[in-house]
Amino acid sequence: MKRIIVILLLGICFSSYGQRRYAADRYFEEYAYSKSAELYQQLYDKGDRSYDVISRLADSYYFISSFGEAEKSYSDLIDNFEKTVLPEHLFRYSHVLKSNGKTSDSDKWLLRLKNLKSDDSRALKLEANKQYFSDYTNRPKTYINIQNIAVNTSYSDFGGFVHDGYFYFSSTQPDSENKKLYKWNNQPYLNIYRSLEQPLQDEGNLDVGSAEKVMSLSSKLHESNAILNKEGSIIYFTRDNTSGDKSKTAKLKIYKGYKQNDGSWGAIEELPFNNDNYSTGHPSLSLDEKTLYFVSDMPGGFGETDLYKVSILSDGSYGDPENLGSTINTEGREMVPYIGSNNRLYFASDGHLGLGALDNFESTIEGSDYGAPMNIGAPVNGPMDDFGFVLDESRNAGYFSSNRDGGKGDDDIYSFRIYQCKESINGVISDATTGSPISGASVRLINAKGEPVSEQVTGSSGAYNFTELDCEQKFTVVASQSDYKQGQKEQSTLDEDKKSLNANISLQSLIVEDQIVINPIYFDYDLYTIRADAEYELEHIISVLKAHPNMIIRIESHTDSRGTTNYNKTLSQKRANSTRDYILSRGIAPERIESAIGYGESQLISDCKSDCSEEQHEKNRRSYFYITNAPDNIKAINK
User: Fold this and answer.
1) Domain covering 511-629 in this structure, CATH number
2) Inter-axis angle of helices 2-29 and 51-63, to 10 degrees?
3) Of 524, 583, 508, nearest to 553 (Cα)?
4) Were both Cys, which of 85, 87, 400, 528 would link to 389 (CB 3.0–4.6 Å)?
């Protein structure tokens, strides 16, 4: 009897397990990833560590962007099946690591992908450009204001483009007519909405008003990713296939509609290159409207989804779809194409090197060829899914979509505005003693390379103002006037457009009574050559002499207490001579220097004799300058 009970219980357990596994697999194959994740997690928790259960658990989390849980499951998968793991699972593990902020670990695993698939372009791209992450995040900065726009909800809102003042986008926000939930993410089915775009303010971002559903395109299925021709008479959009493929799985198809007299859309038709066995979607028109770009997972592509184009012929028929090739397409997902007003192709990809999951890229269109995709970089791209980039060059503004942290819902739409960040540095040059403004002062702006940027001369107010300066740069403001010691101040601009920064500078007068006020000129021990720091001070003296042609000075030079009296007397005279020679070399006439006399160690400042420190000794090795003949406005008291 006990044996029979045990057999019955085992049968019930196996039956329960089998039902749960069957349901999990069915949900997974129907893209109902939220439900499949829940069931595979139950199977895993009950001890099922098979490759299929762990990999599908990880994939389920991956496809609903639950990257934290996906990382745990992929890590477990690789720990248990590293030698047999499939390339795509290794790639997805690398991807979630990056989205979770673990870039170095992500790159390590992406490089290992080459061991499983030697020609995988994703691993080869990383091998060729291991500095990509730094390049994307530290490239010359583009200043962008980003704003979460008003129409976003707690659901999924994404995509969008502007036509005739209206912003068209896709949303899963619920309404009274269709409350059915989509199995993939447990949200309502997508519909196409439009909203009146608000006027772009001088310092603001694009934004939109309240949204209305485009009822004439709505059905019980998904409708999304619409694009209109320039006249606004034709709309292309994506809709679910109503019947599904051989496995009864619904695919995406591109439809075309015509504007009716009442403004609604009608005569909706399926495009001829659609197929029940694969998806086509995300339509976008070329600038001349002779080519339709779209996304498909049709056989013969490079990866999960590829970008294609098809010619729109003069009679309204279509040519054969053409894959955009390996420059654009990878083993991963390329999607959401858009042709900008600059005739560049914008698209999202997780196969090219990026900053996270999906990133936005741009490529030049050169006839039938496409330039190497360039990652648009931060802050538009980040660690999560970023896609749907639309740029209006005439306004330096546009939109993109993202499921980044801080949004209102699942996917949100963000507007952005590119601006030239400019700031100003201003101030007043004043006398350090009296506080009075100094007129006639030369104010120079020097950049971080030591190059002059601009120069101004102060008026009676002593004010200066340098405008239109690049943000986030280091500058030096240098102020000089013939009767003052040169002054300077370091000032760095910020990253805030139109910010005004203040840098007041107070200058010390070079002449106080009969002595030119400068820092002492120091000499190295037992030498009389002019040091670099002494040259800086001597230039002040030369400036005063040139400003006052009748001024005459004398030079007094000294030594420290080391050495004999006669030796120090000779050394100090050599110092006085070298000081005089420097001034004469700068164009000052010899008669302007009355005398240059060395006094040896007879006038020590640090009177410490033999027990001086090196610093005290250096203070004694100096030159002073005195005025012996001065203009009327300078008081001279001769010693």
Assistant:
1) 3.30.1330.60
2) 40
3) 583
4) 400
Locate CATH 2.60.40.1120 in the chain: 422-507
Please compute, for residue 296, the number of CA atoms within 13 A of its CA located in the half-sphere on the CB side.
25
Pairing relation of β-strands 234-240 and 223-228? antiparallel
Q: 313-355 pLDDT, tens per residue?
A: 999 999 999 999 999 999 999 999 999 988 999 999 999 999 9
Q: What is the DSSP letter of 355?
A: S
Give, rounded to a whole angstrom, the gap between the first and last alpha carbons of the chain: 128
Query: How many residues does the structure list for the chain?
Result: 639
What pLDDT score was predicted for residue 8?
38
In the predicted structure, residue 7 carries a pLDDT above the cut 60? no
Strand partners, 193: 169, 213
Nearest Cα to Cα of residue 410 among 88, 182, 136, 167: 182
pLDDT (0 to 100) of residue 182: 67
Q: Give CA–CA dist 88/337, Å, rounded.
A: 23
pLDDT for 12 equals 40
Q: What is the mean pLDDT of the chain?
A: 87
**Cβ pair 556, 569 in contact under 8 A:** no
The ranges of the chain annotated as CATH 3.30.1330.60 are: 511-629
Residue 573: helix, strand or coil by DSSP? helix
Looking at the whole model, is its pTM more than 0.85? no
Considering only residues 243 and 553, tell me which one the structure prediction assigns the higher pLDDT: 553
Closest C-alpha among 229, 139, 156, 230 to residue 193: 156
The top-level CATH class assigned to 143-419 is mainly beta
Q: Which of 179, 266, 249, 164 is nearest to 214 (CA)?
A: 266
Please say if the pLDDT value at position 423 is more than 60: yes
Residue whose entry in the numeric block shows the structure tokens 């030591």 = 450
Instruction: Give percent of the chain above pLDDT 70.
Output: 89
- CA dist., res. 101 & res. 161, Å (int): 31
Q: Which of 409-413, 509-513, 550-554, 598-602 has the lowest mean pLDDT?
A: 509-513
Strand ranges (E), 65-151: 143-148
Cβ atoms of 599 and 556 within 8 Å: the answer is yes
CB-based contacts of 265, cutoff 8 Å, min separation 6: 214, 216, 217, 235, 257, 258, 259
Adjacent-strand bridge partners of 336: none
Q: Which residue has the tokens 């049968």?
A: 11
Phi, psi angle pair for 509, to nearest 5°: -65, 135
Cα separation, 72 vs 58, in Å, equals 8
422-507: what fold? Immunoglobulin-like (2.60.40)
- Residue found under tokens 């991963």: 332
Of 576, 582, 535, the C-alpha closest to 557 is: 576
CA 424 centroid distance within chain: 23
Q: Does domain 2-102 have CATH number 1.25.40.10?
A: yes
Question: Would residue 377 be called left, alpha or beta, if left means φ above 0 and alpha means ψ between -120 and 50 degrees?
Answer: left
CA dist 606 and 223 (Å) reads 89
Q: Radius of gyration over alpha carbons of the chain, in Å?
A: 38
**In what helix (H) or strand (E) does residue 445 lie, and over which residues does it extend?**
strand 442-447
Cα 238 to Cα 249: distance, rounded to the nearest angstrom: 16
Largest Cα–Cα distance of the chain, in whole Å?
130
Q: Where in the chain do CATH 1.25.40.10 domains reside?
A: 2-102
pLDDT mean over 238-251: 68
